[in-house]
Amino acid sequence: MGSWWRYFMGTEGKSGFGSMSTAEDVTEGLNLEDYTAIVTGATAGIGLETARVLAKRGARVIFAVRNVKLGETLKAEFMKESPHARILVMHMNLSDLASVRAFAAKFKDSRLPLNILVNNGGISSTTGPQSTPDGLELMFATNFLGHFLLTELLLDTMRETAKESGIQGRIVIVSGHLHNFTPKGGIAFDKLINQNEIWGFSGYGQSKLAGILHGRELAERLTAEGANITVNSLHPGAVQTKLTHLDGFLGFLISKIAFHTSSKPTVDAAATQVYVATHPQVHGVTGKYFADYNEYELRGLAMDKKLQLKLWKWTEEYLKTH
Ligand SMILES: NC(=O)c1ccc[n+]([C@@H]2O[C@H](COP(=O)([O-])OP(=O)(O)OC[C@H]3O[C@@H](n4cnc5c(N)ncnc54)[C@H](OP(=O)(O)O)[C@@H]3O)[C@@H](O)[C@H]2O)c1
Hints:
Blueprint: H1 5-8, H2 23-26, E1 36-40, H3 45-56, E2 60-65, H4 68-81, E3 86-91, H5 97-109, E4 116-119, H6 138-165, E5 169-174, H7 200-225, E6 229-235, H8 248-262, H9 266-278, E7 289-291, E8 294-295, H10 305-321
Parallel strand pairs: 1-2, 1-4, 2-3, 4-5, 5-6, 6-7
Antiparallel strand pairs: 7-8
The structure holds NADP nicotinamide-adenine-dinucleotide phosphate (NAP).
């Protein structure tokens, strides 16, 4: 891969896995036949590898994607590798709340169980401010809000599945270390709607911080009600994908230099989320943040309970009216 990462950062953490471990390594010997998983953003990058490995290990995997045609093509390719794979491709556009609601309704109608939800799909915008038709900042809408709504709508199914199967449910939120690069105060509540100030790294960081705060609050709530479901967030690692593509010549140079020196291959980058979603070592662990298959200590705004509650309240209010 041409990066020093694999050669110098391959040391193992407590989990026994290191930066050189792939998603296949961390699921070696696991039989996921009793599991059903939803992976958002399964048409590219880290989500695609996550979905592939979960399916290869026997899980029924629902690709929740906005490009169904591409999803079906990828499914056909997977089936060549694993002819018994159980894959369903379903439409969902994370930045469109109506589409998320339609996906959840269709999924519930199918009466399928749900053990694992991987909130992976995401965008980064480097070209300038972008919004949904409702005026909501697009990265916040896609990376955070769409997933918040999806999770809320699927929770009952996850609760029931966990009860009936005895298998602990797992919600996995793909965040990233850029959650530290945010507007002042972490979430610029007054600039989320009809604004053109928040974009680029700070908008991306804001959406990723929101994912972590969502995960921590939900973990607390599910623990308090006694639900057999864990919620954890994570940093997959730096990997060159569509998402990290920077526009323009300068962007091209930055991404080439940054990613040549520090990025992982996608097979490694998918490993942390597959580990958190499936590995027996993570049983019962909730409300945590992982990087390189090991718990990673959060600091600052990511641990701010007041901000966590403020975001939850803001989100509930927004969803009541949209
Ligand atoms: N790459 C990194 O270095 C890195 C580092 C830290 C965290 N992450 C996180 O890892 C996750 C996966 O990123 P990646 O690098 O694999 O990116 P990617 O290759 O660009 O894949 C992103 C996936 O999300 C989907 N997606 C985007 N917008 C969507 C929408 N509105 N509705 C439904 N699906 C949508 C994309 O679908 P389309 O094919 O339709 O666009 C694609 O399948 C993201 O949450 C990202 O923030 C990545």
